[in-house]
Specification:
alpha/beta, Aminopeptidase, Glucose Oxidase, domain 1, 2 domains, 10-stranded mixed β-sheet, 8-stranded mixed β-sheet, 12 helices, 20 strands, 22% strand, disordered N terminus, M28_fam, Peptidase_M28, PA_dom_sf, M28 family peptidase, metalloexopeptidase activity
């Protein structure tokens, strides 16, 4: 890895040098008309097909594939004429991931069934555990079924049941079981909890159980890096239901955790403003370049290319850069591709805490997250509804830009705190919003191909993505040219 990093740094320096050799854009007293015409559907489509093709193997955060994609993006950014704004005169800001996972030598057995981790079943969080305990099956774990069962010192098997059948929120319900119901059972003394899918949930298991294979990620020093020994929570497929219910079985587990660091990267570029004073302030255009990498195959495809999530945002920012190069604004434009978003918003958490420009100089964050699917005339603007709205001023500007441009019908349900997906809390605007910086997110929301190998470039609605990009640009252009920065909402406080 050290040799690879040296190569990537060496590659980054020529990119920075070439950009710096270009003459700076001549200062202008004030921006004239916008350059929305520089945003072209053909450019967006070309960039997206390149980034979301199999060549980059799904751009998994913290892997060579993410780093290769990041170097490719830096080269495209240089070609737009944006200046490097990362560390040491490059386009890159490096940071470390802390990965905590079960070792490959960890073992799990129920009765005569050896469970190969991440093949036959998944442990939902890395934990050190050495268990040899009787397994008791408690049906769905209802109060009536638990009334006469002493779970103390036992492993408890539970049939997942009672979930809604409405697709995406069904997933959230099942994942909630892993925390809520498992927590209640461990408080009662269970030494392990085994959840068994029913046939309705098998597709959910096939789709999502792989996310636990990688373990847990965080920035070094975060509280989540601490390894604790807690009762393991295990998720089994529907096929295990028949034998898990058999009486008299023992659960034996030897789970061992390892933790180590390796690199990820943010990509940072800027277009200086034309106003002598306002150029010291920045409108930050945000997105993320990583996705899920290579995982368990679905219908024979194992590369999770993430065309909508989030090559759409990456291509959109390149298009917006071309517009700002053609016509700079009074304020400076800052473009940040945040690495390892899929690992838990790690790149944006790091950059917001260690920005390469003064934190106080960032007047607004416009975040692009999945902008190319679903109905062609609908979209969502997250951060536009209380309690998520931290700048009604910025929201008004974005709504006016929508009316002046694409005129999307705006779905406000996804921004509500009651929405089961909690979508507001799952993208890169969030760390900035928590710091009080006005922040909004442009999205066309989730779809059936979300986090599957079917999220491919040919499934993107490129005309819709063009209009989403134009909307985002028009908002940023307006913010970059007004004299006063967007006002911050007094008393802003998120619900969690």
């Amino acid at each position: 890895m050290k040799h690879t990093l040296s190569l990537l740094v060496a590659l980054s320096l020529p990119l920075a040098a070439q950009a710096q050799r270009k003459p700076a854009t001549a200062a202008k007293p004030a921006a004239a008309g916008n350059a929305i015409g520089a945003i072209k559907e053909a450019d967006i489509k070309r960039d997206l097909f390149a980034l979301a093709g199999d060549h980059f193997r799904g751009r998994e955060g913290g892997t060579l594939d993410e780093l290769k994609a990041s170097v490719w993006l830096a080269d495209q950014i240089r070609a737009t004429g944006m200046l490097p704004a990362g560390d040491d005169g490059t386009y890159f800001q490096w940071f470390s991931l802390q990965r905590t996972r079960l070792t490959k030598s960890s073992t799990l057995r129920i009765g005569s069934h050896e469970i190969k981790l991440n093949e036959d079943g998944a442990v939902t969080a890395p934990t050190n555990a050495n268990i040899n305990a009787p397994l008791v099956y408690v049906g769905t774990g209802s109060p009536a079924e638990l009334a006469n069962v002493d779970v103390k010192g036992k492993a408890v098997a539970v049939q997942i049941a009672g979930a809604p059948t409405d697709g995406i929120s069904y997933r959230r319900y099942v994942f909630g079981k892993f925390a809520g119901q498992a927590g209640e059972l461990t408080k009662a003394g269970a030494v392990a909890v085994v959840f068994v899918s029913d046939p309705k949930q098998q597709a959910l298991y096939d789709h999502w159980s792989h996310i636990y294979e990688r373990g847990r990620y965080s920035l070094p020093g975060a509280a989540s890096t601490r390894v604790v020994s807690t009762p393991p929570v295990i998720w089994l497929p529907a096929g295990a239901a028949s034998w898990v219910q058999q009486a008299g079985q023992q659960l034996t587990a030897n789970l061992q955790v390892e933790s180590f660091q390796y690199p990820s990267v943010n990509i940072v570029a800027k277009m200086p403003g034309t106003d002598a004073q306002l150029k010291k302030e920045y409108v930050l255009f945000s997105t993320h370049q990583d996705h899920d990498g290579v995982r368990a195959p679905i219908a024979g495809d194992s590369i999770y290319n993430g065309a909508d999530d989030n090559a759409t945002g990456c291509a959109a920012l390149l298009a917006i850069m071309r517009s700002f190069k053609q016509q700079p604004a009074r304020r400076s434009a800052l473009f940040v591709y945040q690495g390892s978003e899929e690992r838990g918003l790690l790149g944006s958490t790091y950059f917001s805490a260690h920005p390469t420009v003064p934190q106080a100089s960032i007047v607004a964050v416009l975040n692009a997250e999945m902008m190319g699917r679903n109905a062609p005339d609908s979209a969502a603007l997250l951060g536009s509804t209380r309690p998520h709205m931290n700048s009604s001023d910025l929201v008004k500007t974005a709504l006016a830009a929508n009316q002046a441009g694409p005129k999307f019908k705006l779905d406000t349900e996804w921004d509500k705190p009651t929405h089961p997906e909690g979508w507001y809390f799952r993208s890169d605007h969030l760390p900035y919003a928590r710091l009080g910086i006005p922040a909004i997110m442009y999205t066309s929301v989730l779809h059936v191909d979300y986090h599957t190998p079917r999220d491919e470039p040919q499934r993107i609605d490129y005309n819709k993505l063009l209009h989403m990009t134009q909307w985002m640009y028009l908002t940023g252009w307006a913010v970059a040219n007004r004299t006063a920065p967007p006002a911050r909402e007094p008393g802003f406080k998120l619900e969690r």
